[in-house]
């Protein structure tokens, strides 16, 4: 199963349940004022584990990684959980069923798939910033009782059971790699 998010293809093995929850009507209703509730890009479920996946790409010209990225992403994870609860309680059809299954999972994991600017150095240029970001995200997500966040890019997967490929058709808009 493959889904494209922000110029990257996420390829999951058979048996995964995937939803682009940021495109759900429940999420869109919660995005404007007064809630300003932006959720993560992808929610997936496999073998009793709920994965909340946020995708960020800072390799565009002029893009900068914000200092408070961990807090912003942690808030997106929190808001995604709120939308899952809303859809499970008051939703309809397949979104309601997916949300009920997701919330029944005994374990929740979060994955920040971030493409930081690396000056063309790939792993050498991003390993240290990604490690620092993971530490900051861990401090945020432990408040949600999620203790093992995974942070990486398309080259540094860090043990997640899917792969990420960057879309070659959109690479010319990026400044590195």
Please explain how this structure is put together:
The chain is α/β, with parallel strands linked by helices. The chain contains four helices and eight strands; from the N terminus they run E-E-E-H-E-E-H-H-E-H-E-E. Helix 2 (69-90) crosses helix 3 (93-103) and helix 2 packs across helix 4. The longest helix is centred in the middle third of the chain and has 22 residues, at 69-90.
* Fraction of helical residues: 25-40%
Helical stretch count?
4
What best-fitting shape do the alpha-carbon axes yield? globular
Strand content: 15-25%
Termini gap: 26 Å
Secondary-structure element string: EEEHEEHHEHEE
Chart the SSEs and their pairings.
Blueprint lengths: L1 E4 L2 E4 L5 E3 L5 H6 L11 E5 L2 E9 L11 H22 L2 H11 L3 E9 L7 H19 L8 E3 L10 E4 L11
Parallel strand pairs: 5-6, 6-7
Antiparallel strand pairs: 1-2, 2-8, 3-4, 4-5
Task: List its salient traits.
177 residues; alpha/beta; 3-stranded antiparallel sheet
Summarize the structure in short.
With 177 residues, this protein is an alpha/beta fold. The protein contains 4 helices and 8 strands, in the order E-E-E-H-E-E-H-H-E-H-E-E.
